[in-house]
Amino acid sequence: MGLGKIIHSDKGHLLELIDEDVQSVNVIKTKLREQSKEAVPSKKRKKNDGKSVLDGMNEEDFRQYNQAKDRVREFYKEQHEKQTMAYNLQARINFKTKVRARMTVWDALCELSKLIDESDPDTELSQIDHALQTAEAIRSDGKPRWMQLVGLIHDLGKILYFFESEGQWDVVGDTFPIGCGFVKENIFPEFFQGNPDNSHPIYSTKLGIYEENSGLKSVMISWGHDEYMYYVAKNQSTLNEQALAMIRYHSFYPWHREGAYRYLMSENDYKMLEAVQDFNQYDLYSKGLQRYDLEKLKPYYLELIEEFFPQKLIEF
Ligand SMILES: O[C@H]1[C@H](O)[C@@H](O)[C@H](O)[C@@H](O)[C@H]1O
Ligand SMILES: [Fe+2]
To answer: Where is region (Disordered) located (predicted)?
Structure first.
């Protein structure tokens, strides 16, 4: 066992050949998690009204950034330093002025099998596994079909990595607002010291370029898979407002988990917050669950995609 088959190149972690090695690492990790669950009775995930496949997952087994590997720290140093207003404006211009690919949602999802997220301390599986785990957890809990689809595609924007990203720092990781002061509720807040916006006369103030409670709709959130996929889905699917909020804000942990940036929120954002928090449990705690067989699940999810994406070929 080892990471011999993961290629570390300037393109980041590419998963080559088969990912059997990675699978076995994850099997061991899951077993260890289960053992430690038995040994130490600790903070179990809060339950909803009914039973959930996530019941019993241990919150403290996830997002332990103080124990995270160097790759995660290094990732966030780069991300926090390079996500500037100037970069974000340019990224949006690039996005709007061209179509990177025309393909089906399913084919795009399959691309994710080549990507391991460097920013994530909780999974070393490829992103297609994570997509299926999230969608299947939502489906097993009997949630609506639109939410199952969100589970499947919430991280689909990570294909940006194969088009025109500068690395993983402008694709993955937790997100935060640009154009106003960075706050301590972000992970590794100390790394913002190296961001030029941190000493900008306006961007470094609490509200920055925004008006109090003017709503997250008008807030620029750091560019990456969430913003990108939000625009793709908003323009080309019939997904509802909650679904689009789940896609846009699911990595905005300082907001949905740590309670920060309330001063930017509108009334309506509180409704969105509830939806995003509901979604987050599936996104985060399903990482400890089993892997699924893509081919077996394909017919179910093809139908689901068709239901909400009227065109077969999507402009990415
Ligand atoms: O939504 C998640 C979350 O923010 C994780 O912390 C991050 O590592 C992933 O890249 C992202 O997809
Ligand atoms: Fe994500």
So the answer is: 36-59
